[in-house]
Amino acid sequence: MAESNVVKSTSFNGRTKNRRNRYRLQLGIFLAVVVLVTLILLYMFTSISYVGKVTINKTQLITESKVKQILNLSPKDRIYSLPVSKMEQNLKMQDGVKKVEIHRHFPNKLSVDITEYAIVGVVADGSGFNPLLENGQVLKSINNIDSSTAPVVSDFGRKERQQLVTILNKTNPAIVNAISEINFVPNQEASRRVQLFMNDGLEVIGDLRTLGDKLDYYPGMAKNVPRDQNGNLVKPGIIDLEVGAVFIPYESQKAETRRLEMESEVAARKKREDQKLEQSINELKKQLDAIRTKSKKASS
């Protein structure tokens, strides 16, 4: 009988202890939920969640002030409610922008990572230089690019310029960086002739249709051109990539003939462009005179 009472007492004590443990666990969970909800509410409805520091990576084609203007952030914007996708889309619509990633960082920081199209060349516009991008676009809204940033591209039509961009995109960047100028100088015998001036003093002549396959030969050929102990060319000249791949010193008759051909073609093209411009101006004057005459008749 005594043993039975001891067993019952032990069982009762065990059940009581289990109930206490469950109660403590439930209370702990409840308090944790209350604390968590309180912290979330404090974060959501106090100044902690206002957008704080905004970090924008360094860009060349779009200014930081322009980026901030497009983001259109106000001091009362909360970090968790920002329309990130729309902000990214608005930035992607800007000229020169290739990719945009915006990230939120707890508690209130924002980072904007903008990837721009690479500058493969610059185009003179009379007052400065416009960047020529890897997608073939010329940003006429920007004319303060340093001409040493990339090769100066001249006299290319839209179609030929796009062909050139395709070539530059595929060419070893070290070779592209070694080019100072690229001119389009076609004539009747060579309708896709291009002229490149290199930073090391050499000149390269090639055909736009085959230039991409031959430019990779340039470093090897340039290395074999005689130079003095200071690295200066002993005999400056032309590396001809039009048909084969050969070095022609300037002092040779062949190089002189090539140079005269290109100078003649450039001069002829400039004359044609000047004539076309003059014709356009004259036509515009005629239209203005006709408008003035018509206006005078109407007023009388």
Automatic annotation (TrEMBL):
GO biological process: FtsZ-dependent cytokinesis
Coiled coil (UniProt feature): 267-294
Transmembrane regions: 25-45
UniProt cross-references to Gene3D superfamilies, sorted A to Z: 3.40.50.10960, membrane protein fhac
Sequence ranges assigned to domain POTRA in this UniProt record: 49-117
InterPro entries: Cell_div_FtsQ/DivIB_C, DivIB, FtsQ_DivIB, POTRA, POTRA_FtsQ_type
Family affiliation: Belongs to the FtsQ/DivIB family. DivIB subfamily.
Role of this protein: Cell division protein that may be involved in stabilizing or promoting the assembly of the division complex.
HAMAP family: DivIB
Protein name per UniProt: Cell division protein DivIB
Source organism of the structure: Macrococcus equipercicus
Lineage: Bacteria, Bacillati, Bacillota, Bacilli, Bacillales
